[in-house]
Each structure stands twice: as C-alpha cells, then as structure tokens.
Amino acid sequence: MAAQGKEHAGKDPVSDKCEERNPFTETREEDVTDEHGEREPFAEKDEHRGANTKKPEDTAEDLTAKRKRMKMDKACSKTKNKSKSALRKKQLKRQKRDYIHSLKLLNVLEEYITDEQKEEEEEEGEEEELIKIFQEQQKRWQQYRSVRRERLKEMKLLRDQFLKTLENFEDLCDRVFSDEDSELDN
C-alpha cells in the first residue's frame, strides 16, 4: 500500500470510494488549462452572484424552453379557466334550479295553507250552522217541554177537579140514595 501511495503522490491523492473528494488537494489537468484562460475567468463567482455567463445558444434554447413552458402554462390555465367557468355555470344552473324549486314549493305551500284556511272557515261556518240548528232544536224542545208541563199541570188540575166533582157526585148520589132509602123506609 505504501508503494501505491508513493506512485500516486504527484497525480491524484488516494481516495476511497466512501470518502469525499477534496477539490483543493486534487490536481487535474483541466485545472491547469483553466488557469490559462480556456475557461471564462471568475465563472464560479458569477454563477453565485447571478450574472449570466451562458453562451447565446444556451439562452436561445432556454428561451424556447421557457416559451414552450409558457404556452403549456397558458394552455393549462385556459383549460383550468374553462373548467372553472363550466363549474361556475353548473353551480349557477344548480342554484337557479334550486331557487325555482324553492319558489314552486313555496307556492304549493301557500296554496295548501289557503286551502286549509278555506276549509277551516267552511267547517267553522258548518259548525256555526250546526250550532244554530242545535240551538233552535233546543229552543223547540224546551218550548215543547214547557208546553207539555203546562198541559200536564192543566190535566192534573182537571183530573183533580174531576175527582172532586166525582166525589161530590158520589156524595150527592149517596145522599140522594140515602134520602130515598130513608123515605122508603119511612
């Protein structure tokens, strides 16, 4: 191992697959060419600061890709807007339908209530008529009973008078018969 470490001493440090590579200790041939101006100077710093260091072809490709994304976004937003408007239309139709059904139900309920009120008034009228008829019948019945009582009283008086006159007649007959019997006996 020591021999292998000496063999790589000038080129690359020995690295394990699990170890991270240290860019400061590594020396590559590319690093040497970068220092001679083949690479843009301070490219790494520009990337961190946000300056555009890309080639014009790259920006054209980026712009076309950006345009494609914008077109797709626009198409997606159109379909999204269409679906939203369709959903709104459907909701409005549903609300309108519900409103119309509510109005119809309200009308039916109002008709039902007015019909019930009319029926109640008619029943009250019928009840009033029945009450009037019943009261008239009660009055007639009371009149009939009072007339009947009066007749019964008169009949009682007449009966009492008849019984008295009958008794008087019997007494009279008894006296007449007794007077005749006494005359006959005499």
UniProtKB/TrEMBL annotation:
<protein>
    <submittedName>
        <fullName>Family with sequence similarity 9 member B</fullName>
    </submittedName>
</protein>
<feature type="region of interest" description="Disordered">
    <location>
        <begin position="1"/>
        <end position="91"/>
    </location>
</feature>
<dbReference type="GO" id="GO:0005654">
    <property type="term" value="C:nucleoplasm"/>
</dbReference>
<feature type="compositionally biased region" description="Basic and acidic residues">
    <location>
        <begin position="34"/>
        <end position="58"/>
    </location>
</feature>
<feature type="compositionally biased region" description="Basic and acidic residues">
    <location>
        <begin position="1"/>
        <end position="27"/>
    </location>
</feature>
<dbReference type="GO" id="GO:0005737">
    <property type="term" value="C:cytoplasm"/>
</dbReference>
<comment type="similarity">
    <text>Belongs to the XLR/SYCP3 family.</text>
</comment>
<feature type="domain" description="XLR/SYCP3/FAM9">
    <location>
        <begin position="62"/>
        <end position="186"/>
    </location>
</feature>
<dbReference type="GO" id="GO:0007286">
    <property type="term" value="P:spermatid development"/>
</dbReference>
<dbReference type="Pfam" id="PF04803">
    <property type="entry name" value="Cor1"/>
</dbReference>
<dbReference type="GO" id="GO:0051321">
    <property type="term" value="P:meiotic cell cycle"/>
</dbReference>
<dbReference type="GO" id="GO:0000795">
    <property type="term" value="C:synaptonemal complex"/>
</dbReference>
<feature type="compositionally biased region" description="Basic residues">
    <location>
        <begin position="66"/>
        <end position="91"/>
    </location>
</feature>
<dbReference type="InterPro" id="IPR051443">
    <property type="entry name" value="XLR/SYCP3"/>
</dbReference>
<dbReference type="InterPro" id="IPR006888">
    <property type="entry name" value="XLR/SYCP3/FAM9_dom"/>
</dbReference>
